[in-house]
Specification:
By secondary structure, this protein is of the alpha/beta class. The protein has a domain of 160 residues: Rossmann fold. The protein is 30% helix and 22% strand. The protein has a six-stranded mixed β-sheet, sandwiched between helices. A three-stranded antiparallel β-sheet has the order 2-1-4, covered by helices on one side. Helix 2 packs parallel to helix 4 and helix 3 crosses helix 4. The longest helix has 18 residues. The protein is globular. The chain starts with a strand and ends in a 33-residue tail after the last helix. Bound molecules: adenosine-5'-triphosphate (ATP). Adenosine-5'-triphosphate (ATP) binds next to helix 1. InterPro entries: AAA+_ATPase, ABC_transporter-like_ATP-bd, ABC_transporter-like_CS, ABC_transporter_ATP-bind, P-loop_NTPase. GO terms for molecular function: acyltransferase activity; ATP binding; ATP hydrolysis activity. Pfam families: ABC_tran.
Amino acid sequence: MTFVSVRNIFQSYGDRPILERVNLDVAEGEFVSIVGASGCGKSTFLRLLLAEERPVKGEIRIDGNPPAVEPGRERGVVFQRYSVFPHMTVRENIVAGESFERASGRFFGAERRAALARADAVLARIGLSHVAGQYPATLSGGMQQRLAIGQALAARPRILLLDEPFGALDPGTRLQMHDFLMELRAETGMTVFMVTHDLSEGFKLGDRVLVFDKTRWDADYPDRYGATVTYDFDARDGGMPFQHLLDQFPGLAPEFPLSALPGSAVRDHQGPEAAPTGPRL
Ligand SMILES: Nc1ncnc2c1ncn2[C@@H]1O[C@H](COP(=O)(O)OP(=O)(O)OP(=O)(O)O)[C@@H](O)[C@H]1O
């Protein structure tokens, strides 16, 4: 059953189209990876889901309703660069994440004690209990990003939006974060949209991998057309057979023509006029 529905979305900045004819149905609990060339509108799409922007045309529905303008309860978001508060301790950061309107200082008495107890439960879940009283600057990059995810989860959102969340981390920490995110996802059943530049990460973590690209090009006016979803790959089972191919041919991604993969389910999002030529990542 559809949880997030995106219908014929167009978005432009000034007279410059960024997205066009984006259609999508996502079930609750699905993990959707989003890849595409730099500047093609992936973050713009996340901002539309967050209701930070309104589309020029089209409609987004979350559980049948337009996305609420206030962040927090329904959707949590994590960016590439650590979005935690540097002047608050790790525990206070989690408390602050519970509600954007109610920073930690707004909790008093029993309410504050309850909020701190909930924060401690989140910290235990993300493995940061031992640094609860420290400031973010004293943590490693991976720990800070775990804190950012914990902060987003403190409000118990049904949807987690991740914009290149592991892009700034070293490869080892990145792998640890993959395990961490998969565990959290299994525990919470949340729906995830993750923008990544790492194709194999997208296939490893996602149930689906969406490729954003332009289907129409004007060589004289490269900004004339917007991007849309050109591929929607079934990536369950760890992105097999994509991962097997990567193992066999290291260095294959990202130029490999994804459409040639055996067993990849490519769903049609644009209708008969669209003629995707393969992602340029
Ligand atoms: N508020 C804005 N006003 C005008 N142009 C914008 C605005 N936000 C984004 N853009 C432009 O829209 C295009 C799409 O930006 P967006 O950040 O969505 O791309 P992206 O696919 O996420 O890129 P990257 O992979 O590099 O992060 C870019 O050319 C960007 O400069």
